[in-house]
Write a structure and sequence with these properties.
Length: 271
């Protein structure tokens, strides 16, 4: 097999949602699956939100590590739900939806993935999860913070309106995102009510909103592998957006490199 054709395995975080009939579904938006397949060239592997059922013990830690041994990357998705404020020492404010099962799954998964060098790409809620997982906190209602714009989507019946470019971001010179994009200012969409308040110690700001300074991108400088988080939604029509393709391309390259290295001993043994 041509090693350049390796298709990485990318784990995608799922949400736990009530289906309206008394049952529950583990769900992932189709746009994330398609981005993984078409923009990354990966085979997606859905990671269900079952954290509380597994518990927080040595057996779960071992299981997370064994899961990550089989994956070449992790993609953290956006969601209508938010990280429960108890994870950063705050009380929940009215008007926010939560997904405790997802929190219990993704927060430890993030820490293990980063420390093991598994490529990590986090989107919207995913960025917020990364900040909380590493010790940061969130604004629960960014639009209520003095000096901040309303970053929520317009809630139009037309999805293209909701995901349309909304504001410019200022990309930090010399950072990871600047190296990937080659630009200091790009226009992005905006569909989030929450956002970074206190930055986690291990994180570096990669971009902020030009209008109000709200954090729009983060990286983990001491991570042994690729680790980037974006507050906007590059997965929406990714193949039509050059900025999206640059960040997905970097994630894809990191995933392929891990897949190649992970498979090398097996292939050598078979030759």
């Amino acid at each position: 097999m041509d090693r350049s054709l390796v298709r990485p395995l990318v784990g995608i975080s799922a949400c736990l949602k009530e289906n309206g009939r008394g049952g529950w579904h583990h769900t992932v938006g189709e746009k994330y699956v398609q981005a993984a397949v078409r923009a990354v060239g990966a085979l997606p592997v859905l990671i269900p939100a079952v954290g509380p059922e597994l518990g927080d013990d040595a057996a779960t830690t071992d299981a997370l590590d064994r899961l990550l041994e089989t994956l070449d990357g992790v993609l953290l998705t956006g969601s209508p739900s938010n990280v429960e404020p108890r994870h950063y020492g705050k009380e929940s404010r009215p008007g926010t939806a939560h997904d405790a099962a997802r929190d219990a799954t993704t927060l430890p998964l993030i820490r293990h993935a980063i420390d093991r060098g598994v490529p990590l790409f986090a989107i919207c809620r995913g960025l917020q999860e990364v900040n909380v997982a590493l010790g940061g906190s969130l604004h629960q209602h960014v639009h209520e913070v003095d000096g901040r714009r309303d970053h929520r989507s317009p809630k139009s019946p037309d999805i293209d309106v909701n995901y349309a470019p909304a504001h410019d971001i200022d990309v930090v010179e010399g950072g990871l995102l600047h190296r990937l994009l080659g630009e200091r200012r790009v226009r992005v969409n905006s569909l989030h009510a929450q956002g970074v308040d206190v930055l986690a110690p291990r994180l570096r700001v990669e971009a902020t909103c030009c209008e109000d300074g709200q954090v729009e991108a983060l990286s983990v400088p001491d991570a042994p592998g690729f680790a980037l988080a974006l507050q906007w939604h590059p997965e929406y029509k990714a193949l039509e957006n050059p900025v999206s393709m640059k960040v997905f391309g970097a994630f894809a390259a990191a995933c392929r490199a891990r897949a190649t290295a992970r498979l090398a001993p097996m292939r050598a043994a078979a030759e």
